Every structure is written in structure tokens, then in C-alpha cells.
Amino acid sequence: MSSAPNFSFELFPPRTPEGAARLPVVIRELAAARPQYFSITHGAGGSDQEGTYETLLAVVAHSGVEAAPHLTCVGSTRDNVAAHLDRYRAAGVKRIVALRGDLPATAMSAAAPGEFHYASELVSFIRERHGDWFRIEVAAYPEMHPQAASPGQDFENFRRKVEAGADAAITQLFYNADAYFDFMERCARAGITIPIVPGIMPITSYASITRFTGGCGADLPRWVRLRLEELQFDKAALLDFGLGVVTRLCETLIKNGAPGLHIYTINQAEPTLRLCRELALTAHA
Ligand SMILES: Cc1cc2nc3c(=O)[nH]c(=O)nc-3n(C[C@H](O)[C@H](O)[C@H](O)COP(=O)(O)OP(=O)(O)OC[C@H]3O[C@@H](n4cnc5c(N)ncnc54)[C@H](O)[C@@H]3O)c2cc1C
Known about the structure:
Layout: E1 6-11, H1 17-31, E2 37-40, H2 49-63, E3 66-72, H3 78-90, E4 95-99, H4 119-130, E5 135-140, H5 151-164, E6 168-173, H6 177-189, E7 196-200, H7 206-216, H8 222-231, H9 235-255, E8 260-264, H10 269-278
Helix pairs in contact: 1-2, 1-10, 4-5, 8-9, 9-10
Bound molecules: flavin-adenine dinucleotide.
């Protein structure tokens, strides 16, 4: 690779005491690769608001790397979202990943209940209240959001987020580079020029990758799924095979113009660090 691309890492607030105890170590190990920033997920409906904030403080304390909280708006009031934004701003946060969040299982349509229905409304709200203080990242779906009516309508809805003021986007995970390149071509035709960074998930287990891809509607190529199924009880072989698949995907993306990589670490340092070593990602340029 000619020059090191930007890269960032995603963490989630730990859900167990063991996960919480391990978090500082994971942060320090990942920080050694010098990512551009860590993003921290946020449960929809405010289920782990405090967890996001505490994980953000842990990133600051243990790494000195920029921390970017995700902020979901589904089920939240304007007052509640405003309070989060004020607290983040007071803590020196400059970057937010703005999302609708997943709907409660009882919701029957793509429209969220509550005072916000879509992420574009959240982006507008952040811009109204805070101007350009925050850099706003939004989600993009090269393979279409699972609740969208059609790829065309989903793309128009993505455009709304850009027009509302998003600075950049991170994609849903995918294993099919062509879906990303097709999305980029559609953006170019629509005059959308913000950076759209591929979201990359290292493959660490057959069960988890089939669950993740199934849940978000990402295509796991048949041959990859079959090989992972075959290797599911040979952990070392599965990790090696998965690393090869994801390394080739990242190399293809970077070689063909992706502006960076956002790695879903699932709070495990080693799979992400192995991928960084394979890609010679050592420092944020
Ligand atoms: C990078 C990334 C990070 C994520 N982090 C989190 C997280 O921390 N916590 C979490 O709970 N979830 C997270 N998610 C998952 C995300 O919340 C879900 O995919 C959610 O269902 C959609 O969120 P969104 O922000 O993309 O929503 P939106 O952009 O609002 O889109 C949601 C759906 O509504 C449709 N839509 C949008 N606008 C309109 C409109 N005006 N009229 C009609 N339809 C419309 C879209 O086509 C789409 O089908 C993340 C996803 C990504 C890709």
C-alpha cells in the first residue's frame, strides 16, 4: 500500500463485570496502533447512555486518542438528546456518530416512535443547536438498510442525512467490495462528496459472523460461509482464513480509493491488531 489510510476503531460499553475489567487493557492495546479515533456505541432508546459516557471517559483516560460517542435518537426526547450533546460538548467531544438506532421489536414500520423518526432529523437538530462544533458521522448502507423500501429510496434517505449536515459516513459491515464501489458510484453521480469509510468486521467465529451479517442484511459470500462452517471448531484455522478474507477486502477497498477503514473491534484487541499488521496500518497519517 502506498500511503497509510486513516483508520478508526469501534468499541461498545462492556456488558459484564469481566468485560469492564478488561476494557482498559483492550483500549491500551488498540491505542498502540494509533487510530484516528475510537467510536463508542450507544444503545437505542437510551438503554446504555451511561455506559457510552463511561466508556468514553475510559478511552480518554487510557489512550489519549479522540473519542467519538454514537448517539441514537429513536425513543428519545429532544430534551434528552440536547442534554447528551451538552454533556459531550462540556467533556470536549468534537465528533459524534449520529444514528436513528434500531427500532423496538414491536415497531411495525421503518418510522421510529418518539420525537425523532430518522437520523437526518438528529443531524439537523445537532446542527441547529451546536453549529459546526461537532464533526458528524452518519451510517451508510452499501447493501441497503434492511427496513428500506428499495435501494433507491434508501439512497435518497442517505442523501437527506448528507444535506442535513453530515460531514462523513461509516458503512454497515460488508464482505462484498463491489457493493461499496457501486455505492460510491451512486454518490459520485448524486454529487455527494463526503468521505464514506468502509465499516470492517474481523471474522472471529462462524456463529457470530453469521448472526451479525444476518441481522444487518450483509451478504456473506457463500464460499466464505461454507469455509467458515467447515472450520468452526478449529479456532486457529478459522482465524487465519478470516484474516485472509478481510485483509484482501481491505486491500481492494484502499487500492480503489476508500478514504479509510473503521474497524468493528467487538472489544477484542488481537483480531483488529492482526489485521492492522497485515495491512501495515501502524499510525494515523
Ligand atoms: C456505523 C454504524 C454504527 C452504528 N452504531 C449503532 C449504535 O451505536 N447503536 C445502535 O443502536 N445502532 C447502531 N447502528 C445500527 C443503526 O442504528 C441501525 O441500522 C438503524 O436501524 C438505522 O439507523 P440509521 O442511523 O442508519 O437510520 P436512518 O438513516 O434514519 O434510516 C433508517 C431507515 O429509515 C429510512 N428512512 C430514513 N429517512 C427516511 C424518511 N425521511 N422517510 C422514510 N424513510 C426514511 C432509511 O431508508 C432506513 O431504512 C449502527 C450502524 C452503523 C452502520
